[in-house]
Every structure is written in C-alpha cells, then in structure tokens.
Specification:
The complex is a heterodimer of chains A (about 160) and B (about 200). Chain A has helices at about 5-20, 50-65, 130-135; strands spanning about 30-40, 70-80, 80-90, 105-120, 120-130. Chain A has about 160 residues and is of the alpha+beta class. Chain A has a 5-stranded mixed β-sheet. In chain A, about 40% of the residues are buried. Chain B has helices at about 1-45, 50-60, 90-105, 170-175; strands at about 70-75, 110-120, 120-130, 145-155, 160-170. Chain B starts with a helix and ends in a 20-residue tail after the last helix. Classes of the chains: A alpha+beta (about 160), B alpha+beta (about 200).
Chain lengths: ~160, ~200
C-alpha cells in the first residue's frame, strides 16, 4: 500500500513489475502517463506505437516470449522524482521473441531501469538489459542462427 | 599624583577590557572554525555522489592508482565483465577491468546522465564514447567509434565503495565494434570480426 509519499515511487515501481510479471497490461495506465517517453526503445520490438501503448507492446512481446516471466527488484535507489531499479528477469522462452522462434531455454538476466515521475505516474524511462547474456543463454549469437538473422538486438543497422 | 595614578588604573582597566574582548573574539572564531570543520566532515561523509563522480573522472583521466583512495581493498564485484578473464579480486580486479578498457579506448569518456543517492547507495546512468584504437580481449583494434549506455550501482562502507553491480549494453558495444561473430568465444583467443551484424 502507498503509505507515505516518500516511499510511493518505489512502491509504484514494485507494483509495476508485479503487473508486468502477471501480464496485467491494463493496469499499466495506473503507473504511467499516456505519453510516457521511452528513451530506450527495444530493438527486438518493432512498433509504430508511442507512449504507454508502446511500453505495453514491449512488455507484451516479452511476456509472450517468456510466459512464466518474472521480474524481481534487487535494489532501488530513489532521489527526488527519480528512481533507479536494479532488476533480475527470469523466464522460459516458450514463445516467439520478435522474429526468433522459441528456444525453450530458461534465462536469468539482469538489467536496470530509471524512471522519472511526475506526481505518482512515470513520465520517462531509460533502461538497459543484459542482452549479451540473454542471447548467449538463448543460444543465439550474433552471426545469424536461423531466426536471429537480420534482427541482432542491441544494435541499429 | 593621585590623578595620575587613577589615570594609570583606568588605562589598565581599559586595556584589560580590550584584552578580554580579544580573548572572546579569539574563542568565538575558534568555535566557528570547529563548527566549520564539523560541517566539512559531515559534508564529506554525505557526498557519496561527489566520490562517485571522482570514480568516473579516474577512468576518464586514466589515473587508476587513485582507486586506492576510493575503493575498499576487498570491494565485491557482483557483475564481473563478460569480456574479461582475470584471476584478480577486489580492488585489483576493478583496476584491471578499467585499465583494460582504457587501453582499448584511450580517448574513452564516461558522461553521467543521472546520478541518484539513497542511504549508502548511489546509482548512476551513464553514456560512454570512445574510439577502439587499442587491443581489446585478444582482438586487434578495430578503430571504430562506440557509444553505449549503462548503469552502475555502488554501495559505500564509510567513505569507500565496498560493492558494485552494473549492467551495460555490452552487446551494443560488440555490435558497434563488429565483433559479435561468435558470441561465446571471446575468451578463446582469436575471433574474426564479423562485419554483417
């Protein structure tokens, strides 16, 4: 529950990760403004959408690729209107990710998110996920193995 | 005669008062000085952010011996670098990783994008740019420019960094260098750069 104002940004982020892990994308509107700015677009998710709809699409793509996906926060650092979260994502790749067919491999990767809040909603996001570890664990290396061709995540071509 | 004596007494009294005044002034300034000193130490212990800015400056300037003032000897690295093999531990491991990157990217610079402090932790979102004009992980220099982002999280023990976690876009880095060929085989010596990714 949101007890004090001071803790509410961290609480919000925890709840956001819970909603993401559970696949409750309709709850996302409680956590972010409709025009939230994504500063770190996901190279594996091609989309014309913007704002909250784009964020939903990214999260839905990962949830479809890893239906048992779970995001746990390792650390959260809050100052003023900003929070940086260190996260761990686990899941089994039983669905397609972008153009890549399911590998049925289990992954455990770390990442960081930085969220800027206005009031109690996120207005901006920056983030990095350890894509090198993710793709190594999936058994996909850069030089085009099957479905990975032409879709090397992490790089813009 | 009497008047002169009184005059002298009076002078003594006045100079006494002046003396006391100066003693008071001295004590007051000493007190202010010590208050200032207390504030200064309070500030030093509080400004973990300033120390972290110094941490990145050390990389940018290549003065890696200065890590001794900033990191505990047995600092714990929770996310060892995926492109490095080393037997070293603690501070010496961090020194090795960072001086390796510095040799590979001699003009490499970190720019802090966001820095947040909360209790004994500081989290940083950074951007780094550099030209790969030196050897890296057994690979010859590619002379390519790289620009990547990453995050670091530091935990302090007093005024020294005692733990570190971090994730950066290492796939982006390898892709920009054209080295994503055999993702797995960085440690296995020669790795032909693959241009198509």
């Amino acid at each position: 529950m949101d007890t004090t104002n001071n803790n509410s940004h961290k609480d919000k982020m925890k709840k956001f990760y819970e909603a993401f892990s559970a696949g409750n994308f309709n709850e996302f509107d409680n956590f972010m403004t409709s025009d939230v700015i994504e500063h770190s677009p996901d190279p594996a998710v091609k989309s014309d959408k913007t704002g909250a709809e784009y964020v939903k699409e990214i999260c839905r793509t990962y949830k479809n690729a890893f239906p048992d996906l779970k995001i746990e926060t390792q650390h959260m650092v809050e100052e003023g209107d900003n929070v940086i979260a260190h996260i761990k994502m686990t899941g089994t790749n039983t669905g397609q990710l972008g153009d890549m067919p399911a590998t049925n491999k289990r992954v455990e990767v770390e990442g960081f998110d930085m969220i800027a809040f206005k009031g109690d909603k996120a207005t901006e996001h920056w983030g990095v996920i350890d894509n090198l570890a993710l793709f190594k664990q999936l058994g996909i290396s850069g030089n085009a193995e099957g479905g990975a061709r032409g879709n090397a995540p992490g790089g813009n071509k | 005669m009497l008047k002169a004596e009184q005059g002298v007494m009076r002078l003594v009294e006045i100079s006494d008062t002046i003396g006391q005044y100066f003693i008071c002034l001295f004590l007051l300034s000493a007190k202010l000085f010590s208050i200032h000193k207390i504030f200064k130490t309070m500030n030093t212990t509080n400004s973990h952010k300033e120390l972290i800015k110094k941490y990145y400056d050390i990389f940018n300037n290549g003065n890696f011996e200065e890590y001794d003032n900033l990191l505990t000897k047995d600092i714990i690295e929770h996310n060892p670098d995926p492109n490095m093999q080393s037997d070293k531990k603690g501070l010496e491991y961090i020194r090795e990783v960072n001086s390796t990157y510095n040799k590979a990217f001699p003009d490499g610079k970190f720019e802090i994008q966001h820095i947040l402090e909360d209790g004994d932790k500081v989290a940083v979102h950074w951007k780094a740019k550099g030209n790969n004009t030196g050897e890296f992980g057994g690979q010859q220099a590619t002379n390519k420019n790289v620009e990547i982002e990453g995050f670091d999280m530091f935990c302090f023990d007093g005024n020294k960094i005692s733990e570190h976690w971090g994730v950066f876009d290492s796939l982006g880095m390898l892709t920009q260098l054209g080295l994503t060929g055999n993702g797995e085989s960085n440690s296995q010596g020669r790795n032909t750069p693959v241009g198509n990714v």
